[in-house]
Amino acid sequence: MSKHILVFLVSSILVVGCMGGKGQGHGNGNGNGGGLKLKYYDNLCRSVSVEKTVRDIVWSKVAADPTMAAKLLRLHYHDCFVRGCDGSILLDPTQNTTTEKTAGPNRSISGYEVIDEIKTKLEASCPEIVSCADIVALAARDAVSFQFRREMWPVFTGRKDGTISLASEVGGNLPSANANFTTLLAQFGTKGLSLNDLVTLSGAHTIGISHCTLVARRLYNFTGAGDADPSLDQTYAKTLRKLCPNPVNSATAIEMDPNSSRSFDSNYYRALNQHKGLFVSDATLLTNRQSATIAKVLENQMVFFANFARSMVKMGAVEVLTGGQGEVRKNCRVINGQ
Ligand code: HEM
Ligand SMILES: *[C@@H]1O[C@H](CO)[C@@H](O)[C@H](O)[C@H]1NC(C)=O
Ligand SMILES: *[C@@H]1O[C@H](CO)[C@@H](O)[C@H](O)[C@H]1NC(C)=O
Ligand SMILES: *[C@@H]1O[C@H](CO)[C@@H](O)[C@H](O)[C@H]1NC(C)=O
Ligand SMILES: *[C@@H]1O[C@H](CO)[C@@H](O)[C@H](O)[C@H]1NC(C)=O
Ligand SMILES: *[C@@H]1O[C@H](CO)[C@@H](O)[C@H](O)[C@H]1NC(C)=O
């Protein structure tokens, strides 16, 4: 198939995906959604450019530590999937509550200090205006964008911060690395995200790391009979077994895109289509015909970048608090008045 036909194909899939998605019901299915706007802060903070402040700090952090890009991207995803993009992931546990960040699937989530540093700087120049949820959304965009020195997607702003964060809500909302296609599609569906968004956002795994524990089952005991997952490329499985000897060490990290885990590119899909996706949740994207077709199309980097931008805007609008809802926290780790 020629590239033009492929582009046309994915556009058609996209249109169908948007119209058939559940997004409308949540008020976040199209465009910015949820009452967010571009440049929301431009007239609210006169003495400082909010977006430039975020970008400058994020870029300096990513320049100093390239692994920070993946961390900040994942932080935004984890925020949005539990109670919407409301900064609830940032809240520290209190005497009364175990917050989202303390839950099991938080595994190795970090980047909190970068958000704190941005917040402190903005509070000094434009107090009680810029929400932590917006800082997380902007930081994710800027973290990925550093590699390209240009904005990879628009970030609509105006989110307010939530006042509820419960560890008990993480498990059911965040897909597991062993989730099958049906479960993933359902979990994305409850956020108003489509099959196309699922395949496209999974491409985030082109950067960053995971840990041996999350693939141990695929390597050593897939059905419980001491076997490997037959859907995993055998050569790649061998490489992974070398990196993660049995019994696996929970501290050992492995790259999710072994060829270019620090480069945001479409190699995730090239690897996936060669049956070298790391998790069951990656590999399972090939088990559905429509999803597999999209994964093929997204090997084209220009198409991937365009679609990723669109899906990030959608994800960034999931269950956002706007208008009179929520608050602007003074400290991203605690709700106001505590
Ligand atoms: C489709 C469902 C998804 C599942 C099951 C999933 C699961 C995981 C798991 C298990 C890890 C490794 C954690 C660790 O070992 O420390 C991980 C890492 C990561 N995920 Fe996902 N994820 C999903 C979707 C997403 C989405 C939508 C994004 C962002 C848009 C994302 C961004 C990342 C990034 C950037 C990392 C690397 C983090 C780092 O290097 O610190 N993931 N994911
Ligand atoms: C913690 O629990 C106590 C007793 O139930 C209650 O009085 C207090 O308001 C709670 N604090 C917060 C911050 O929720
Ligand atoms: C993440 O979850 C684990 C397991 O529940 C917990 O031990 C750890 O402290 C949590 N991490 C953070 C940053 O809260
Ligand atoms: C997918 O996983 C869910 C939850 O573990 C399970 O109930 C369901 O039967 C699985 N579906 C398929 C098609 O394997
Ligand atoms: C493999 O899985 C089975 C069934 O879940 C379990 O009983 C067994 O202990 C596992 N073996 C190893 C080595 O983890
Ligand atoms: C890494 O690159 C090599 C050479 O281009 C290719 O053969 C291999 O399939 C790639 N592996 C992955 C996991 O992308």
Task: Considering the chains and any ligands shown, give keywords for the structure.
338 residues, two-stranded antiparallel sheet, disordered N terminus, binds protoporphyrin IX containing FE, mainly alpha, binds 2-acetamido-2-deoxy-beta-D-glucopyranose
Overall description:
The chain is an all-alpha fold and 338 residues long. The protein has a domain at 3-203 and 298-315: Peroxidase, domain 1 (Orthogonal Bundle), CATH 1.10.520. It is built from 15 helices and two strands. The protein has helices spanning 3-20, 23-26, 50-64, 68-81, 112-125, 132-145, 170-173, 181-189, 195-202, 216-220, 234-243, 267-273, 280-283, 289-297, 301-315; strands at 209-211, 253-255. Helix 1 (3-20) packs across helix 14, helix 3 (50-64) packs across helix 6 and helix 9 packs across helix 14 (289-297). It starts with a helix and ends in a 23-residue tail after the last helix. The model is unreliable at 1-31 (pLDDT under 50). Disulfide bonds join 45-126, 80-85, 132-332, 212-244. One of its GO terms (biological process) is response to oxidative stress. Keywords: Calcium, Disulfide bond, Glycoprotein, Heme, Hydrogen peroxide, Iron, Metal-binding, Oxidoreductase, Peroxidase, Secreted, Signal. GO terms for molecular function: heme binding; lactoperoxidase activity; metal ion binding.
